[in-house]
Design a protein that fits this description.
The complex is a heterodimer of chains A (323) and B (257). By secondary structure, chain A is of the alpha/beta class. Chain A is built from twelve helices and 14 strands. Chain A starts with a strand and ends with a helix. The C terminus of chain A is likely disordered. The chains are: A alpha/beta (323), B mainly alpha (257). The interface between A and B is medium-sized, with 35 and 26 residues.
């Protein structure tokens, strides 16, 4: 356990009836870093965030955020955290400015401070012109920006972002990433959940991969990529019925189980495999026709597939959102 | 600053939020005022001719206190819908993650509802005067009657807050409101004298707190005999508020989803 950890959770458990959303989760984020919690829908990410933000008591385990116990010191903790959830939780019938002023007042800033912060945040999030319009007229990206601005009203030292960019177009997503990076540069500690490997790769200092309520891997983005081994060979078969023959032909080069999806085949390669040249020779000799073949560095998608045995797109049920 | 002062401040912030929303939801506002007016016209002119109300100058006099009590009690319905909506949009999560008073989301709503109910009262008394209703009492009693009705609205804001928090969706809130509370207002002396009802229903209607409240309003607005109805109404209002507020706050604190 690091002494300067701003977020630390040990053995968090939470069930909803028969659904075991968290089954003993440990998370640690040192001050001024970003912890990415990566996993598919229903993995338990949202449940973890809800426990760490005092919204939900855990069935077991302990968690401290900014030195405060999430159960015993909940009320004190609430003034030190900012939460931006999955839903862009803004009041559609209030203007952008009114939304931010309301949140400021509920953080117990004075009316004057609340006004000042609202104006500052609207400017910072490029919402000054829209600040006088009701939020129901905002685009999805604008709502997310307003939601994130609301989480930053008191400049909280710890920020929880639950899938902050889900459903955003690439341009809005990039803008949001930049804002988060600026906060981290100023010393904010961030816990970010995401289904997007690209997002974890870009923002997170350390990544906890979570699946079925358990952390199945933890480390830096490079650590996780290293777990997948070296380079990967991707190829597209002319005839999907030749998949078996292809796997057999590539056997001596492979370093792990290949993945097949229709005509696409992907396999980790041994370090001394001889790369694409050796692969083409062996496939030729076995009479396997390919329309495309390439060797590439592993991505976090590969890491996830290796760790869970499933691709990231495969969404399981999502108990904590429907419970 | 003391926590009591923060509770007051947070309630005021949330009440302001609700009041700001009212003029921005014209559809809601129209439904809120048009529906009771339709009921007044329906009962006064379609059913009214067939309903004998001995002791009252005309059916409008008998009807208006009943329809006002029903509308004010049922007006809290928008609170159930709004709270269910806040839950689904993640706003309740946001509020619960803030260092604000736990009760403020509910109390802010209940206090803001007083303004909506006052508006509804003005519309209803206005249409009542048009269809033949006339006050037959003194000013202090009429004022007491209005306060009693606003108190009733306040109590039912908590009842509907509890329904909204428990139901979790606008559709379920709707179902509970229209299958439980709406019929309760009809099985009372609001629209017809309970003495005309069959055994069983008659005793139920006579014991129904809605009957007590309607009779108290008739006494205060029209000088009809009151017995202990005014005091009993106050007891009901305080009792309903205490029970519903306690349960709603407990439900809000322990929201797990």
């Amino acid at each position: 356990m690091s002494t300067d950890a701003v977020i630390e959770a040990h053995g968090l458990r939470r069930s909803f009836g028969d659904v075991h959303a968290l089954q003993g989760v440990d998370l640690v984020a040192p001050a001024g870093t970003v912890l990415g919690v990566l996993g598919p829908n229903g993995a338990g990410k949202t449940t973890a965030v809800r426990i760490l933000t005092t919204l939900l008591p855990p069935d077991g385990g302990t968690a401290r955020v900014a030195g405060l116990d999430v159960a015993k010191d909940a009320q004190a903790l609430r003034s030190r955290i900012g939460l931006a959830g999955q839903y862009a939780a803004v009041d559609e019938y209030l203007t952008g400015r009114e939304n931010l002023e309301m949140v400021g007042r509920l953080y117990h800033l004075s009316p004057k401070e609340s006004k000042t912060r609202a104006v500052e945040l609207l400017a910072e999030f490029d919402l000054t012109d829209a600040g006088g319009r009701v939020a129901s007229t905002y685009s999805g990206g604008m709502r997310r920006r307003l939601d994130l601005a609301a989480a930053l009203v008191v400049r909280p030292p710890v920020l929880f972002l639950d899938e902050p960019t889900t459903g955003l177009d690439p341009r809005s997503r990039n803008a949001l990433w930049q804002t988060i990076e600026e906060r981290v540069a100023e010393g904010t500690t961030v816990l970010l959940t995401t289904q997007y490997l690209e997002e974890a790769d870009r923002l997170a200092d350390r990544i906890a991969v979570i699946d079925h309520g358990k952390v199945i891997a933890e480390g830096t983005s490079d650590d996780l990529k290293a777990k997948v081994g070296g380079e990967r060979l991707d190829l597209v078969l002319e005839d999907p019925s030749q998949a078996g023959t292809a796997i057999e032909a590539l056997g001596p080069l492979a370093d792990g189980e290949p993945a097949i999806d229709g005509t696409s085949l992907s396999t980790p390669l041994r370090a001394d495999s001889g790369g694409v040249v050796a692969a083409v020779r062996r496939l030729d000799a076995a009479g396997v026709g390919v329309t495309d073949i390439a060797v590439r560095r592993p991505t976090l998608d590969d890491a996830f597939l290796t760790l869970t045995g499933r691709p990231t797109e495969e969404a399981s049920t999502d108990p904590e959102e429907t419970a | 600053m003391s926590s009591l002062r923060w509770t007051f401040s947070d309630t005021l912030v949330l009440a302001t939020r609700q009041l700001r929303r009212i003029p921005r939801q014209p559809d809601l506002l129209i439904g809120y005022t048009i529906q009771p007016v339709m009921f007044v016209l329906l009962f006064r002119y379609v059913f009214g001719g067939a309903i004998a109300t001995p002791g009252f100058d005309n059916y409008a006099d008998y009807l208006m206190p009943g329809i006002i009590v029903q509308s004010i009690a049922f007006g809290g319905f928008v609170t159930a819908l709004a709270i269910a909506d806040d839950m689904n949009k993640g706003l309740i999560d946001r509020f619960r993650s803030l260092p604000m008073s736990r009760i403020a989301v509910l109390s802010g709503r209940a206090f803001a509802d007083i303004a909506l109910n006052a508006l509804q009262l003005v519309v209803l008394i206005g249409i009542g005067l048009v269809v033949g209703f006339g006050f037959d009492s003194d000013v202090p009693k009429v004022v007491l009657g209005i306060l009693l009705l606003l108190g009733l609205g306040f109590a039912f804001s908590w009842v509907f807050a509890l329904i909204g928090l428990s139901a979790g969706s606008a559709e379920t809130s709707n179902a509970i409101g229209f299958t439980v509370i709406f019929p309760l207002t009809f099985a009372s002396g609001a629209f017809v004298p309970p003495s005309t009802m069959p055994d069983g229903l008659r005793q139920f209607a006579e014991a129904n707190p809605f009957t007590t409240l309607v009779d108290a309003t008739r006494h205060l607005f029209l000088g009809a005999p009151a017995n202990s109805d005014v005091w009993m109404s106050i007891v009901w209002i305080v009792g309903i508020t205490a029970v519903a507020a306690t349960l709603a706050l407990r439900r809000y604190r322990s929201l797990a989803s």
